[in-house]
Write a structure and sequence with these properties.
The protein is α/β, with parallel strands linked by helices and 297 residues long. The chain folds into two domains: 211 residues, Rossmann fold, CATH 3.40.50; 73 residues, no CATH class. Helix content is 34%, strand content 25%. The strands form three sheets. The chain has a six-stranded mixed sheet, with helices on both faces. A three-stranded antiparallel sheet has the order 2-1-4, with helices on one face. A hairpin with a 2-residue loop joins strand 1 and strand 2.
Length: 297
């Protein structure tokens, strides 16, 4: 999805190895201007390595990488002012207030947001004069985002932005990110929370063992076949049974007509978590087969 323009992020055949271990195995990725893209994957799948390569902090092993039209490692200094980074672990903000921090860091960019605008976007206007160390965890995370967007980035990297948040704080944070997306900022988000990806992302990509194994809007991930309803019940011997079917109503009617109403009968569609777990399992099997072929060659 590129929204009719050149993609903000374009990756082809990206590889990376650490010693004998292949981290990325030919990753392809496009992210369009103004899009919010969630990169999902288990620990060790290569998410952090991918993001660090896109940010220009790590060298690719092979393949082509273009971010805002440039190779991140060779891009001029002006390129860095066009991206914003919110790392998973916040930095030391010192004995300063949000207003002081935003004023200082905003001065490093050619066309920064006004301090009041940045504070308003992240919901910190009422806390602008507090010492950063006195803010709550959620407020400090909002300040991290404010520092990431004060330079008006065209592309914002968000690495696990709501880790450790309680449910209410997470939903307030989501509202803030949706408001930010409406300003036209492209967002690349990594997260372990599938509900977060479902609420925020235009598209999600599932990274498993170094490749994108599936990519789609959250409601379409895995394709129609992954969303076939499942009928579950217990037979007279107490065994748990299930049947995937496109016609669950007819199947249940036949089941009842044949055997009477079974115990613990339920009909459900696989949710995003079930689909995701199936995809990363398939990715792991594919990577193992690739490794076996390499060893046999």
């Amino acid at each position: 999805m590129t929204n009719g323009t050149d993609p903000v992020v374009r990756v082809r055949g990206l590889t990376k190895r650490y010693g004998d271990r292949a981290i990325l195995r030919g990753l392809d990725l496009d992210i369009g201007r103004g899009e919010t893209y969630a990169l999902l994957g288990p620990n060790g799948a290569g998410k952090s390595t991918t993001i660090e390569i896109l940010e220009g902090f790590r060298r690719a092993g092979g393949g082509e990488v273009r971010v805002l039209g440039a190779d991140p490692l060779a891009a001029p200094r002006a390129w860095r002012s066009r991206i914003g980074i919110v790392a998973q672990q916040p930095g030391d903000l010192g004995p300063y207030t949000p207003r002081e921090l935003l004023s200082h860091f905003g001065g490093l960019y050619p066309d920064p947001r006004g301090v009041d605008e940045a504070l308003s976007l992240v919901g910190l206007s009422e806390h602008a004069g507090k010492r950063a160390g006195k803010l709550s965890g959620g407020q400090q995370r909002r300040l991290d985002v404010a520092l990431g967007i004060v330079g008006r980035p065209e592309l914002l990297f968000l690495d696990e932005p709501t880790t450790g948040f309680d449910p209410e704080a997470r939903r307030h944070f989501w509202d803030m990110l949706r408001d930010l997306a409406r300003t036209g900022t492209t967002i690349l988000l990594t997260t372990h929370y599938l509900d977060e990806a479902a609420h925020l992302a235009d598209r999600v990509g599932v990274l498993s063992d170094g490749r994108i194994v599936a990519e789609a809007p959250p409601g379409e991930l895995g394709g129609a076949s992954a969303r076939v309803p499942v009928v579950r019940w217990r037979d007279t011997a107490g065994r748990a049974l299930e049947q995937r079917t496109d016609a669950p109503g007819a199947f249940v009617a036949g089941l009842i007509a044949d055997r009477g109403e079974p115990d613990l009968l339920e009909v459900s569609r696989p949710d995003l978590e079930e689909i995701y777990l199936g995809l990363i399992g398939a990715g792991s099997r594919s990577a193992l087969e690739d490794q076996q072929r390499e060893e046999a060659a």
